[in-house]
Each structure stands twice: as structure tokens, then as C-alpha cells.
Amino acid sequence: MVEEPISLHRALAARDSQRNAVPQTRFDRSELSRILTVYGRMVAAGEWRDYALDFLEEVAVFSVFRRTSEMPLFRIEKRPKLRSRQGQYAVIAAGGLVLKRGHELAQVLKIFDKKLLKALAD
């Protein structure tokens, strides 16, 4: 039985590709937990049915859909470069209108409280 030498080329190639990877903006666990709490309430009210997550170089986006084949109703964005200016979090409507922007995610997500009360009242 002939033993083949262990090849380290794949491990080195994987390590090098991670070094050259483009950094991505992401939601951390607590941010995602807050967003999913609001999402769960709106799903329970029958307003939302699907979501998508996009992690790009400068922005992380949580998109909310009424149906999967539509454009998103709302986008919850995190842009760390705006942290010191307007605030890194924003809720954007389907037409591109910025509904709320701020430094704290909890404050920005309060915009959905009114929509939830309206949905429950109907």
C-alpha cells in the first residue's frame, strides 16, 4: 500500500482567499433578534410573509415581503459609515422613501408599532 503525501495546497489556498475576501457589513445577534421579533409580530398579524437578508460591503439589508414574488415592502438597513452622522440604521419603504433613520435600532423599529396596531385593529 502506497501512502500519498498530505497536500497542504488546498488549506493554503483557502487561507489566502479569506485574506483577499471583501469585508461584509452584518447584523450582530442582538440586532437580528430585535428585527426578527418585529418580523414575527407582523407575520402573526398577517401583514408580512417572507424576508431576505443581504450582506454587502457597505450595507446589511433585511428586506420584508408581503409575497415572495414582489418587491420588498420595507428594507431595514445598517450602514456603519453613517454612524457618526445621521445614524447607521434606517427603515426604507418600497418606493425608496426613508421612513425613519437613527442611531439606535430599537428607536428605528418603533415605526412598525403603529403599523402593527393598525393591522390588529382591522
CA-to-CA gap between the ends?
75 Å
Biggest β-sheet strands, sense, barrel: 5 strands, antiparallel
Number of domains: 1
Point out poorly predicted stretches.
none
Radius of gyration: 20 Å
- Given helix and strand content, the structural type is alpha+beta
Q: How many helices does DSSP assign?
A: 4
| Percentage of residues assigned to helices | 25-40%
Mean pLDDT: 81
Give, in spatial order, the strands making up the sheet with the most strands. Answer: 1-2-3-4-5
Number of strands: 5
Q: Percent of residues in beta strands? A: 15-25%
From the spread of the alpha carbons, the general shape counts as: globular
Q: What's the SSE pattern?
A: HHEEEEEHH
List the helices and strands and how they pair.
Blueprint: H1 9-19, H2 29-44, E1 50-55, E2 60-65, E3 74-78, E4 89-93, E5 98-102, H3 105-109, H4 111-121
Antiparallel strand pairs: 1-2, 2-3, 3-4, 4-5
What does this 3D model show about the protein?
This protein has 4 helices and 5 strands. With 122 residues, the protein is an alpha+beta fold. It has one domain. It starts with 8 loop residues before the first helix and ends with a helix. 18% of the residues are buried. The model has no long low-confidence stretch (mean pLDDT 81).
